[in-house]
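Sharing a chain and its predicted structure for anyone who wants a worked example. Both blocks are below, sequence first, tokens second.
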Amino acid sequence: MTASRQIRETNPHMSLPSHVDVAIIGAGAAGLAAARTLETSNLSVLILEARERIGGRSHTFNFANGVTFDLGCEWLHSADRNPFVAIAKDLGFELDRSRPRWREQSGNIGFPPEEREAFLKAMDAFDARVTEAADLDEDTPASQWLEPGNRWNARINTVSTYINGCELDVVSTYDMDAYEDTGENWRVRRGYGALIAAYGAPCPVALNTRVTLIDHSGARVRIDTSRGTLTAGQVIVTIPTDLIANEAIRFHPALPGKVAAAAGLPLGLADKVMLRLDEPEALPVDGHLYGKTDKVGTGSYHLRPMGQPCIAGFFGGSFARQLGDKSATALADEAIEEVVSLLGADIRNKLHVLGSSRWAHDEFALGSYSHALPGHAGDRAILAAPVDGRLFFAGEATSPNFFTTAHGAQESGVRAAEEILAMPAKAG
């Protein structure tokens, strides 16, 4: 049994091992995937995780009334290519393959069919212009490809806040076009966060261990943490880009190229709220409503997801950030007001807040998922590149085509681990 596995199986307050072959910073999908990829090697491995749990930006809450709420990632995007589909099968997690109804408005409430069709036509035309613009010699803000004066520009921008976590003026056209989506989007009955936690359960993890310095100046990499110092032969860094950009973890010697690349890939914001519903039978299963259709700041509401007695609200971009900065309850308050405006005053007393996210105020995340600023689409490859055969980088922001997703993070962790395995063996 290696030292890395001992730390998981004994007193969690014990000292860290003095040395491991591979240290992984962060126990999100990327870090867990890296550890799982290395588990059959002869290398000792330890994940250093600042939180008191594994999963990173995935986290499932299961409430007593049977409601499953994924505080972070929820959908297995590109499910026909998503490695978590096979992982779910292996671990006995049931998948729900019902298609999302994001392009619909249940009951045509506040969004008549003819208006919805006009919006979808405008949205598809915008997407086509972005695809064409991706062939230009210079990158541009995606907002440049909105049709001037089009009445649906605010709604198209709202969709960007859900997809990118920000408005189109700070999104790279090249990067937006690079994202791959097969159109297959499934869910995990027991929660995506629960699946990722089960996937990572065998991994050797030191929880409540905040890394502050990675010193790669010597023969071994020295890692300073809140629980002491250890050395490693190689290190995989999987933390969110904003933490690299603001140097929450410092590198010595400094890595200004990595810091700059991370700054070019900031985290947007997508926050969620779950509202329990007293009389769910009055609403359609897996229905959908947009809050408002004429402004950027509004919610997207999933009615009775997977048949559950609840409404899930989704907010993105600067509006979500404003709500989160206002107070811990502002997101839920806004969701209730919008739902009441759509479904009538009688529903107000039937709605009860179960929980909500506030990712910008999570010190170990500072946001939800990355987007490339205009002119910075190439920063994903820069961030992903190894340094001196000893420092390796993973995480959704390093994925060339599946950024913003848990499966993009998972695949990047596998890639980083395989880069280590491909290194020539060092002489003893």
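Comments welcome. Residues 1-11 have pLDDT under 50 and may be disordered.
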